[in-house]
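ASSEMBLY PREDICTION REQUEST
Request ID: AP-0331
Submitted by: J.K., bench scientist
Number of chains: two
Total residues: 500
Priority: normal
Notes: Please return the full assembly, not individual chains.
Input sequences:
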Amino acid sequence: MKNTPLTEKHIALGARMAEFAGYNMPISYTGIKEEHHQVRNKVGVFDVSHMGEFIVRGKEALQLVQKITTNDASKLSIGDAQYSCFPNEQGGIVDDCLAYRLPEDMCAEGEQAFMIVVNASNIEKDWEWANRHNDFDTRLINISDQTALLAVQGPKAAEALQPLTQVDLGSMKYYTFTKGAVAGIDNVLISATGYTGAGGFELYVDASRAGQLWDAVFEAGKAYDIQPIGLGARDTLRLEMGYCLYGNDIDDATSPIEAGLGWITKTKKGDFISRDTFARQREEGVSRKLAGFILPGERRVPRHDYPIEDAGGNPIGKVTSGTMSPSLEYPIGMGYVKTEFASPDTTIFIAAGKKRLEAKVVKPPFYKPQ
Amino acid sequence: MNFPDNLKYTNEHEWVRVEDDNIAYVGITDFAQSELDELVYIEVETVGETLSQGEVFGTVEAVKTTSDLFMPVSGKILEFNPALDESEGDDPTLVNNDPYGEGWIIKMQISNPGELDELLDAEAYEKMVS
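STATUS: Completed
Returned structure:
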């Protein structure tokens, strides 16, 4: 099991630790619900250093990114980030990712540079995949091991971090980034992104400085009651927003069109892996769709792999994610259902052991932060 | 973490406290409640039933996971802790805050006391979860 540069800090804080994607990660410090509310209402810090980062640099960097991701990276100006995914040749998803168009200060004349951020569980698979498709004048560099990542999330994130940097955090637009000094550490990539729906920043920093940044963030955030947040609350926060988790809601056998990721599947941008499949699915429709559903008044919680049925008890799909929503205080979930059951307000049933739970299809996000 | 000496423990993280006449209280351990995180619901619909050792007698829901509850020994379920019962206005966090006391889950009549010998003592259970 691998450690992040901050594992010792989590243990010292008394976190409940568990293996996630091969890393010894904090699941929770004080309790998932409490940490969840901390991020929704104030500010919290996640160590997500287990995520992978690849640099794509060269004269044809854009061509490689365009070929292996579904979103249109040509739309990115320097300082922009976008959510995207790697499609496979069967129209499934190798991984979901973020693509950053980097400044060109490290580039030779005529070169461009991107950073692709991938899920920890898929680093090796993605690295192999990206390299296999790199028949361009472009280099790939895997900086995952020397890169730490802190996600500082919540409505108070900008205020809490502002004393640490000259960068005007409040004016940064969602899905933009800049490089700057934070807490006296040069070259921190400050990204106005996150996977919580609570707003905030993700700070990419050299692994050797991660502990220093962590300490500085907590010192600066004291006035805002900043707290460490584990992966348990990360999951409930992302699910309240209807964000997909790779391995649960999307995988090698799910299409982005089925998963509701049509908005990052730009079939008109030019050729890319499985483009024709996605264009056809978009035109002809798909037989199943990822639907969000709610169970107000219910106390049993739908979980990954529970069968979904119609009123007559016929199987129509499977749950991919489910939780008791800490913000809404009732169960929520997502799952693939036959397309005719995917429209909002459709009643579906979740088989939870001997119980059948009635659920209503809704369009995520489940929770709309103030 | 606390593992009282007067209890017997199972591999599935239940505890049993035997009283007079083979009446026993059953709950989940401090380790179990800690791993589950805050509980949001406890369902026991087997009151009055006689179940065998290892059979499911209920379910606990935490934010992140659902976990079945298993009979530590065979017997009849006499009572579901009213403080955990939805129809009585439940507080599932009693199990988190006081797993061996207020957070007991069922009261049962043991039908085969010999099965108690198969359970773990506090020392063996603690060793298993540490």
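REVIEWER COMMENTS: Chain A touches chain B at residues 16, 28, 31-34, 36, 232, 235-236, 299-301, 303, 323-324, 326, 352-353 (CB under 8 Å).
SIGN-OFF: pending second reviewer
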